[in-house]
Write a structure and sequence with these properties.
There is one protein chain. The chain has about 300 residues and is an alpha/beta fold. It folds into two domains: about 140 residues, HUPs (Rossmann fold, 3-Layer(aba) Sandwich); about 140 residues, HUPs (Rossmann fold, 3-Layer(aba) Sandwich). The protein has twelve helices and ten strands. Strands 3-2-1-4-5-10-9-6-7-8 form a ten-stranded mixed beta sheet, with helices on both faces. α12 links the parallel β9 and β10. It is elongated, with a radius of gyration of 21 Å.
Length: about 300
C-alpha cells in the first residue's frame, strides 16, 4: 500500500510548474497528504563583486528578489490546494536548485516529489539536465515529472498505468509501486519489458534474426514477467504483461500512447558512469518525450 503523507513540489513560476502543481494538488487530496511548494532563488552572477569593483557595484550588480513578495506569490499559487482543504506550506531558499530540492525533500521527509520538465528545446533541455535530471538520479523518494506535452488535464487517481521493467532492482521497485497504485485506484496496469533490438553485439544481432532464437528470448522474458505477479496481484489489479523489441524508450512511449496511459512508472538505476549512460538513453528520453506524467524510483 502506497503511503504518501508529504508531497514536495518545486515551483519556478512557469506554466510548466503550474501544470505540475495541478497534479501535486490532486495527489495530495487523493492521499490526504500535506503539500509543500518550494522556490529556489538563483544567486545572481557576481553578487559579491571583488574589492576593485566596489565603486560601481550598485550600478552593475543585479537586485536580489524580494523574498516576501516571492512567498506571497507562492501562497497565491497554492490557493487551489487551500480551497481543497489540503494542508500547505511554502519554502523560499537560494542556491543550487537541485541540491535545495533534494535537501528539503530529506528534511521534510517527503514521500513524493512532483515537478515539471521543460521539454526538448535549447535552453529547456539544459534546464532539464541541470535540475530535473539531477533530482531524478539522486532522490531517495519517488519523483513524478509532469511534461508540458501532457495531452489531458490533471487527473488522480490514474486509471491506465504503464510500468517499464528491465529486471534491475530499481525497475522491480517501480513494479511494486505501480502494482500498489493500480490496486488502490482499480486501474488498468500493463507491465512492459523491451528487448533492446538490434543490439550492439553483431553476433547477438545475427542470433536474434533467427526466428526460433528470438522467440526463445521473448518467451523467457514473458516467463520472468509472469513470475513477478503473485496470486493476490492477479486478483486485485489484473495486470497485463507484454514483451516488445526495439529501442526501449521508443517502445515505452509507443506503448503509453497505444494504451492511453496517464502515468508511466519506471526505475532509475543510479549515478555511476554506466547508469548515466542508461539514464540518458532510456529514462531521460522517456521523461523528455512523454505525453503523460512519469514516476521514477531509484534503488
Amino acid at each position: 500500500m502506497v503511503d504518501i503523507r508529504e508531497i514536495l513540489c518545486p515551483i519556478d513560476f512557469s506554466a510548466t510548474s503550474r501544470h505540475a502543481l495541478e497534479h501535486a494538488v490532486l495527489s495530495a487530496r487523493w492521499y490526504g497528504a500535506r503539500l509543500t511548494a518550494v522556490h529556489v532563488v538563483h544567486a545572481p552572477l557576481f553578487a559579491q563583486p571583488p574589492i576593485i569593483a566596489v565603486g560601481f557595484a550598485e550600478a552593475t550588480s543585479p537586485a536580489l528578489p524580494d523574498r516576501r513578495a516571492l512567498k506571497q506569490e507562492l501562497r497565491e499559487w497554492l490557493l487551489p490546494a487551500d480551497r481543497a482543504g489540503i494542508a500547505t506550506d511554502v519554502i523560499i531558499d537560494d542556491g543550487d536548485a537541485a541540491v535545495q530540492i533534494l535537501e528539503h525533500a530529506g528534511s521534510r521527509k517527503a514521500d513524493l516529489i512532483v515537478m515539471g520538465t521543460h521539454g526538448l528545446s535549447g535552453f529547456e533541455r539544459f534546464m532539464l539536465g541541470s535540475v530535473a535530471e539531477k533530482v531524478l538520479r539522486k532522490a531517495k523518494v519517488p519523483v513524478m515529472t509532469v511534461p508540458p506535452a501532457a495531452t489531458s488535464a490533471a487527473r488522480v487517481p490514474y486509471t491506465h498505468l504503464l510500468c517499464a521493467v528491465d529486471f534491475s532492482e530499481s525497475s522491480l521497485a517501480a513494479c511494486r509501486f505501480a502494482v500498489s497504485l493500480a490496486k488502490e485506484a482499480d486501474a488498468n496496469l500493463t507491465i512492459l519489458h523491451v528487448l533492446d533490438w538490434p543490439p550492439d553485439d553483431e553476433l547477438l544481432t545475427e542470433q536474434l534474426n533467427e526466428p526460433e532464437f528470438r522467440r526463445l528470448i521473448e518467451d523467457r522474458a514473458s516467463t520472468r514477467l509472469e513470475g513477478l505477479l503473485t496470486d493476490d496481484i492477479r486478483v486485485w489489479c489484473k495486470p497485463r504483461t507484454r514483451v516488445a523489441c526495439g529501442k526501449p524508450y521508443q517502445q515505452i512511449l509507443e506503448a503509453a500512447d497505444r494504451d492511453r496511459a496517464d502515468l508511466i512508472v519506471m526505475g532509475v538505476r543510479g549515478r555511476n558512469a554506466l547508469d548515466l549512460t542508461l539514464f540518458g538513453s532510456t529514462t531521460n528520453q522517456v521523461v523528455r518525450r512523454a505525453a503523460c506524467p512519469v514516476l521514477t524510483l531509484r534503488q
